[in-house]
């Protein structure tokens, strides 16, 4: 999986890293149980500070997308459980995206079609 960061974006680098790793897991580019690069290796490859990668990994761990072992490193979680916090976060984000789509003139059908297209690209979800 290739990480591409936009250094001029208003989105913090650690959030971009987190989002790209989640997308990589969702699309099947990162497999269950797969070892992730070390913090130092990813920081070097991406050209960012190790604290930035560490923060992204910590968020991913807290969200249940990865697991860490001090001796062995970080791995894609075997099971990512749905919980109330995630459902509330997802609903809130979808509400905002729906409002933005509506306000910019996108029809309900276009919005749902886009959601369906993107969701179908996620490998674990379509298998």
Keywords:
globular; mainly alpha; Arc Repressor Mutant, subunit A; two-stranded antiparallel ribbon; 6 helices
Report on the architecture of this protein.
By secondary structure, the chain is mainly α. It folds into 2 domains: 13-76, Arc Repressor Mutant, subunit A (Orthogonal Bundle); 84-126, no CATH class. It has 6 helices and 2 strands. A two-stranded antiparallel ribbon has the order 1-2. Helix 2 crosses helix 3. The longest helix has 20 residues, at 84-103. The model has no long low-confidence stretch (mean pLDDT 92). GO terms for molecular function: DNA binding; DNA-binding transcription factor activity.
- The H/E string reads HHHEEHHH
Report the CATH architecture of the largest domain. Orthogonal Bundle
Number of helices: 6
Could you estimate the helical fraction of the residues in percent?
55-70%
Order of strands, main sheet, comes to 1-2
Number of self-contained structural domains: 2
How many β strands by DSSP?
Answer: 2
Gross geometry: globular
CATH topology of the largest domain: Arc Repressor Mutant, subunit A
Q: Indicate the proportion of strand residues.
A: 5-15%
Report how far the terminal alpha carbons are from each other: 20 Å
The gyration radius over C-alpha positions equals: 16 Å
Protein name: Transcriptional regulator, GntR family
Pfam family, one: GntR
InterPro entries: Tscrpt_reg_HTH_GntR (IPR000524), WH-like_DNA-bd_sf (IPR036388), WH_DNA-bd_sf (IPR036390)
Organism: Agathobacter rectalis (strain ATCC 33656 / DSM 3377 / JCM 17463 / KCTC 5835 / VPI 0990) (Eubacterium rectale)
């Amino acid at each position: 999986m290739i990480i591409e960061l936009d250094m001029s974006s208003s989105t913090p680098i650690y959030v971009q890293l987190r989002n790209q790793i989640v997308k990589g897991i969702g699309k099947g580019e990162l497999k269950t149980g797969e070892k992730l690069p070390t913090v130092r290796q990813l920081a070097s490859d991406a050209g960012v500070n190790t604290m930035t990668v560490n923060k992204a990994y910590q968020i991913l761990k807290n969200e249940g997308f990865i697991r860490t072992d001090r001796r062995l490193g970080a791995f894609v979680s075997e099971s990512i459980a749905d919980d109330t916090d995630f459902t509330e976060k997802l609903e809130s984000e979808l509400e905002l995206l729906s409002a933005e789509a509506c306000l910019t003139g996108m029809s309900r059908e276009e919005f749902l079609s886009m959601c369906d297209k993107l969701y179908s690209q996620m490998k674990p979800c379509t298998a």
